[in-house]
Amino acid sequence: MKMSKLTKARYLSSVLSLMIIISSIGIIFSNGFNWGLDFTGGVVTEVRLDSHIKATELSELLAQHSEQEVSVISAGESGRWVLRYSQVDAKSSTDIVSVLAPLSGNVEVLNSSIVGPQIGQELAEQGGLALLVAMLCVLGYLSFRFEWRLASGALLALFHDVVFVLAFFSLMQMEFNLTILAAVLAILGYSLNDSIVIADRIRELLIAKPKMAVDEVCSAAVKATFSRTMVTSGTTLITVAALWGMGGVPLEGFSIAMFLGIMIGTISSISVGTCLPELLKVKAEHYQLAPISQTP
């Protein structure tokens, strides 16, 4: 039986997705993560300077006087900044004042707090637990909503998306903090939406056309939902791109993670989400209602 072009494209994208999963896992295990202060511990100092000072000026000055990277985040009020650095004993409040004195004649340290490594370890464990619980809840919902073959395709697509985003941050050694973890959890929800739409369409076609070949059913489901998927993903990408461009450094990591997650999630819903159920021999009989027995 001759395969359609759409079916061939699904199969090729599934092979590519499998390669992405394997290579992503290898990257994560070989490179690890550049954990942020939320997980490793460090010092968070809030200062007030003259309102005309910009973040780039602060970053350049601190880089000249420190061997470690100092994160500069706006506190939301003009002239107020949050400085984050990892070494607890690297800079005291007095050091910060003397370092920033050439930039501003009025330097005021509002507060300074230390995040210990024990708290950071607790956050890492809770973050991993949050991902695990989210995946288990998704598995439970999908198994209830669909037959397990369709549920497994959607779940593998979610795993594919999360692993890809994590591997990108591992490869680039970008700081992984609670904001990135929040983005990963958001990606789970977004990717699940696409997978459910396609899986629901596959189920409807299996019930409506039980004699149609499974590969044709999956391709027809992708074709029927393709325009909806592209419009939804496209408009969301525009919003995330605007957030990336205008959100500044504090939202850069979150925006990058969301941008990558939405793109790869759209691909995985079409490839992994449809090909794995087909590989597991999903059939129309799995969704046929059992006949009601009649007693004489």
From TrEMBL:
<feature type="transmembrane region" description="Helical">
    <location>
        <begin position="178"/>
        <end position="199"/>
    </location>
</feature>
<keyword id="KW-0472">Membrane</keyword>
<protein>
    <recommendedName>
        <fullName>Protein-export membrane protein SecF</fullName>
    </recommendedName>
</protein>
<dbReference type="GO" id="GO:0005886">
    <property type="term" value="C:plasma membrane"/>
</dbReference>
<keyword id="KW-0812">Transmembrane</keyword>
<feature type="domain" description="Protein export membrane protein SecD/SecF C-terminal">
    <location>
        <begin position="100"/>
        <end position="274"/>
    </location>
</feature>
<dbReference type="GO" id="GO:0015450">
    <property type="term" value="F:protein-transporting ATPase activity"/>
</dbReference>
<dbReference type="InterPro" id="IPR005665">
    <property type="entry name" value="SecF_bac"/>
</dbReference>
<feature type="transmembrane region" description="Helical">
    <location>
        <begin position="220"/>
        <end position="244"/>
    </location>
</feature>
<feature type="transmembrane region" description="Helical">
    <location>
        <begin position="127"/>
        <end position="144"/>
    </location>
</feature>
<keyword id="KW-0811">Translocation</keyword>
<feature type="transmembrane region" description="Helical">
    <location>
        <begin position="12"/>
        <end position="33"/>
    </location>
</feature>
<dbReference type="GO" id="GO:0065002">
    <property type="term" value="P:intracellular protein transmembrane transport"/>
</dbReference>
<dbReference type="GO" id="GO:0043952">
    <property type="term" value="P:protein transport by the Sec complex"/>
</dbReference>
<keyword id="KW-1133">Transmembrane helix</keyword>
<dbReference type="GO" id="GO:0006605">
    <property type="term" value="P:protein targeting"/>
</dbReference>
<comment type="subunit">
    <text>Forms a complex with SecD. Part of the essential Sec protein translocation apparatus which comprises SecA, SecYEG and auxiliary proteins SecDF-YajC and YidC.</text>
</comment>
<dbReference type="Pfam" id="PF02355">
    <property type="entry name" value="SecD_SecF_C"/>
</dbReference>
<dbReference type="Pfam" id="PF07549">
    <property type="entry name" value="Sec_GG"/>
</dbReference>
<dbReference type="InterPro" id="IPR022646">
    <property type="entry name" value="SecD/SecF_CS"/>
</dbReference>
<feature type="transmembrane region" description="Helical">
    <location>
        <begin position="256"/>
        <end position="276"/>
    </location>
</feature>
<keyword id="KW-1003">Cell membrane</keyword>
<keyword id="KW-0653">Protein transport</keyword>
<comment type="function">
    <text>Part of the Sec protein translocase complex. Interacts with the SecYEG preprotein conducting channel. SecDF uses the proton motive force (PMF) to complete protein translocation after the ATP-dependent function of SecA.</text>
</comment>
<comment type="similarity">
    <text>Belongs to the SecD/SecF family. SecF subfamily.</text>
</comment>
<dbReference type="InterPro" id="IPR055344">
    <property type="entry name" value="SecD_SecF_C_bact"/>
</dbReference>
<dbReference type="InterPro" id="IPR022813">
    <property type="entry name" value="SecD/SecF_arch_bac"/>
</dbReference>
<dbReference type="InterPro" id="IPR048634">
    <property type="entry name" value="SecD_SecF_C"/>
</dbReference>
<feature type="transmembrane region" description="Helical">
    <location>
        <begin position="151"/>
        <end position="172"/>
    </location>
</feature>
<keyword id="KW-0813">Transport</keyword>
<dbReference type="InterPro" id="IPR022645">
    <property type="entry name" value="SecD/SecF_bac"/>
</dbReference>
